[in-house]
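pasting input
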Amino acid sequence: MRMKKTLAVTVTALLAMLAMSSCGSDDDNTPQSGGPAKADIRVWLNGADTPQEARDWLKTTFEDQNPGSTLTIEEQQWEGLVERLTTALTSESETPDVVEVGNTQAPTFTSAGAFSDLTSALPDLGGDDLLQGFVDGATADGKTYAVPYYAGSKYVFYRKDLFAAAGLTVPTTTDEFVQTAIALKQANPSPANFSGFWLPGQDWRNGVTFVWNDGGDLAVDDNGTWQGSLSSPESIAGLKTVQQLFQQASGAPKDGNEADPQTPFCNNEIGMMSAPGWVTGLIQDPDTGCPDMMKNVGVFAMPGADGSPAPVLLGGSDIAISAKSPNQDLAQKAVALMLSDDYQSILAANGLTPAKTSLASQLGTDEFAQATIAAATNAKLTPAAPGWATVEGSRILEDLFVDIAKGGDVEKLAKAADDRMSQELG
Amino acid sequence: MTTSGPSRPNRPGSLLPLGLLVPAVAALALALGYPLVRQVILSLQEFGLAQQFGKPAEWVGLQNYRDLVADPYLWKVVVRSVVFCLVNAALTLVLGVGVALLMRQMSKPIRILVQSGLLLAWAMPVLAALTVWQWLFDTQYGIVNWLLTHLGPDFAGHSWLLEPLSFFFVATVIVVWMSVPFVAFTVYAALTQVPEDLIEAAELDGAGPWQRLRAVILPTVRPVLLVVALLQVIWDLRVFTQIYVLQKAGGVTRDTNLLGTYIYRLGIGGGDFGTAAAVAIFMLVLTVVLTAPYVRMMLRQEDAA
């Protein structure tokens, strides 16, 4: 007994001591310019999107222009990025200097003050030539905190040989697309997990196309408060189309995510899939893909209800400087290089829509470039709500689409998802 | 404050015992005390992403706790976590003690082989192990589905993580697999201390194997079993990595959250650090409540010794 009491006294005394000492220890100085002339600049790039050629160019050029400094690229996974940025950006000693952030994730961090103000540098970085939608998305209270890095909307990859074998042609409307996907699945009973249209359960970023296509939306601004709107009649119609695709056209795991689409594609398990343009590179790569398959690969922009391209999620990235980074000046030089014509041309040559509109012609004229350009004509952003990234961080939409894939009641699920979204956004 | 027992000479005024306590207390204060205090303060604030980057936080008193207690989802997660914890701790203990008893009967080379295997499983980094398990249970290309399909039932394309029960089955397999070696080694070490002549005497008195186990062996290793059980309950209640990684691979996050992942989704995922801290405090209390009987039993044993 006595031992316990002693312990209790010690712990209480300890806590009291700590409570007093922890006040006022918060460190909130945020350098916005300056920094040493020489440093190691850490750049976070996400996924395999940025081609190796661009990475090499960036490192070499930066180190040539800034003798004594080095630039290290640290590759991050897209999956879980919001969480990682939330923790890394707050620590002055741990923060990367330059970060790539998904264009739909940027508003959450800009309004929280995680990024340095780039407004005054904007003219030098490209000014009006930059993709305006991206700049707007990264602007809060008249200040711009991030600049576009690249854009790219998903388009449909399909197997010409399987289309020919099943007597199918490239669909020109959404209805035709759904029918083609189902017919393709029926024409290929083996393997059992064959997908007429590959749609893993967690892939809401592709699923949202059908919601928008029927006039619905994820969330709407209702007099200043953002609210989920997946249970509107239009959204429900779109979600029912998604459920039909899940159940009749897709053989992908009902709870899988959309990472590594090239694996099932190269394994002859996919008739059509909607993927970013740079997946071409993964299919062509002998290590990750199947170069021999390329002759059978065709692409087209997902068709909408009336035959023009469907509203697809405008994908892409922003580049920002961590507000806590001690190397603001050098970080800005790195950002300037990443937006230079040379660097952006490398991105364009690899199928990514460059951040500057004047460089769009660098995409080329082949089938892939045409699909890229067509898909971008009707691309849409996720809701511009300041708290949107927290909706993504708490996986509300992943959960909803997996439940829909499982065959759940769409109306009930959409209502529940709306409630949770409104709670996160409100 | 007296720290020595009444039977020992008690020299008042000597500061040495207290001085000797200082390093341990300082280390505890630094590693546990500071985060704990920070946590309590956080749980009483409205603390979001903007506060994380320097905005002053608003003091909300017990509002975070009130919101939580009123949220039926928290209770669902609590029940789920407690059941998961107890099932896993019990399974781990039964299997671990079983393996330890088996090791007693093994010839030396076999025992070394088994021990090496256990040690490898124990030493394997969690994420590496999880990647392998994930591949084993993969919906499309997993060897578990392939084997089962070859054995008869059609498991092609079966998703193990889709239904919550099945998800927790996989999680249990992984968690138990990772913790059995620790229990097996610890209990085996304790078993080597059981006097052989005691067992022999029991055998001569006509005790069967089951009676020998229950009346002689288990009571002798009881203190060790208690400590191991206590640790297992704590570990299995705060399980995080396994659930987090499996959630990324599949399943519905909301239906498979345990306390650890729930706190993470609330705080780091959803940017609501205040509420997340409140859940964490709640979890701490739950741990204390769940483990209090063990701690009391252990203290009583120490007093008796």
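fyi Residues 1-5 of chain B have pLDDT under 50 and may be disordered.
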